Amino acid sequence: MIKYQKKRYNHKEIKAQFPIFNSGDLVYLDSAASSQKPNSVLKSINEVYTNHYANIHRGVYKLSQVATDMHEDAREIVKNFINANSVREIIFVRGATEAINLVASTVADTKIKEGDEIILSRLEHHSNIVPWQIIAKKHNAVIKIAESDENGEVSFESVFKNVTSKTKFISITHISNAIGSIIPVKQICKEAKSRGIYTLIDGCQAAPILEVDVQDMECDFYVFSGHKTYGPTGIGVLYGREEILSEAPPYQGGGDMIDKVTFENTTYAGLPSKYEAGTPNIVGAIGLGSALKWMQEIGMNNIYDHSKNLINEGISILKNIKGLRIIGEPSNRGGVVSFIYKDIHSHDLGTLLNTYNIAVRTGHHCAQPTMERYRVPSTVRASVGYYNNKEDFEALAEGILKVGKVFEKV
Predict the structure, then answer these.
(1) Which of 16, 32, 125, 167 is most buried (most C-beta within 10 Å)?
(2) Residues of the chain above pLDDT 70, percent
């Protein structure tokens, strides 16, 4: 893995790299849903479409070969970003949702038998619940839930007290998208591996701020989305251990995932092509590579330090607001904080904050079981990117108080 040096954070310099902030008054606190894009990513996308675009892998002409090289260079960047053993273990998909569905529909579908168990945590995004419910129903398997405590922690113990000889999969988030809890996935994966249990880690909220090392973690699968890591939408990554994916059946059939096709029989290409049927999101992959390269140039330790310090500052500011309650107080938190304010519905609060050009997420955050656990129907969620600073939370606090005064008059 790349070792990074500590850098002094220059907010003005960083924010200037994001054209969306050129107007100067946008307070964007919704990076957990999707991050904004730096100039380097936007330029790489424009450069490909303007000067290098062609379909890849099959063209014998120079333009196609250049585009192919750029696409595969992006795969190499992803491999290094998460320290995979081989580019064959890097599958480009539409996003983390498709990655989880791919694993459930191929590997799990062949491994899960009647009565087998799948363990999820209370804090999962719906995309890491529903695919497993489909597979469990298909095979008459059992889903067991690792509960979180009142602070929003999912511990190693809460996971493994559910483990039995029938446990086949543990699929769990690295960082909760709803309340920000960081889960001890490395400890979980290592123990699971010693027991012969497959592990999938949803890294959507972790990949943007943490240094991820899948070999050190010893997970079987790791997934994340490009649009949360300062890259384009419509592109994501499935890391899967080569020996597992090589044995698993294809996910979709079509061009580029085949070796030889006859009407009598078809043989399949090797990894990663076997799981990338059809024309891929060529420019999306290249844009993702550019985004990850941008993050690596900053240094993942610097991004994490900024996120941790900023979210702690933000929580301190929010806690000074009378009537505001933060949902979840995990000791180890990512760049997310969720809260409710007085008896104002989260949608109303978010809508009125928008009138002050403050963008936050409201609702159940595709994590209804999490909302149920903490006895709230929805929350307001503020989440940070590398372009945010303390002034954004000060503006948020000021906006919340303004909204409060509006409701006092109703």
Answers:
(1) 32
(2) 99
Asked whether 224 and 203 are in contact (CB, 8 A), the reply is yes
Which domain, by its residues, includes 26? 11-37+299-405
pLDDT digits (tens, 9 = 90+) for 230-271: 999 999 999 999 999 999 999 999 999 999 999 999 999 999
At 337-390, the pLDDT tens digits run 999 999 999 999 999 999 999 999 999 999 999 999 999 999 999 999 999 999
Same structural domain, 304 and 209: no
Please name which of 389, 393, 406, 311 lies closest in space to residue 351, comparing C-alpha atoms: 406
Query: What are 227-230's contacts with CB under 8 Å, separation 24+?
Result: 227/34, 227/35, 227/95, 228/31, 228/32, 228/33, 228/34, 228/35, 228/204, 229/35, 229/288, 229/291, 229/292, 229/295, 230/35, 230/36, 230/37, 230/38, 230/41, 230/291, 230/294, 230/295, 230/385, 230/386
Question: Residue 339, SS3?
Answer: strand
Q: What is the DSSP letter of 226?
A: G
- Report yes or no: 61 and 54 within 8 Å, Cβ to Cβ: yes
Phi, psi (deg, nearest 5) at residue 122: -60, -25
The model's confidence at residue 3, banded by pLDDT at 50, 70 and 90, is low
- Residue 366 annotated to the active site: yes
The residue among 136, 181, 228 whose CA lies nearest residue 373 is 181
Catalytic residue among 189, 204, 219, 366: 366
Please give the Cα distance from 283 to 286 (Å, whole number): 5
Rounded Cα gap, residues 298 and 266, in angstroms: 46
Helices (H), 320-389: 346-354, 368-373
Do 138 and 118 fall within a single domain? yes
328 in a domain, yes or no? yes
Continuous H helices in 19-61: 39-47
pLDDT, residue 4, reads: 62
**Residues 379 and 370: beta-carbon distance below 8 Å:** no
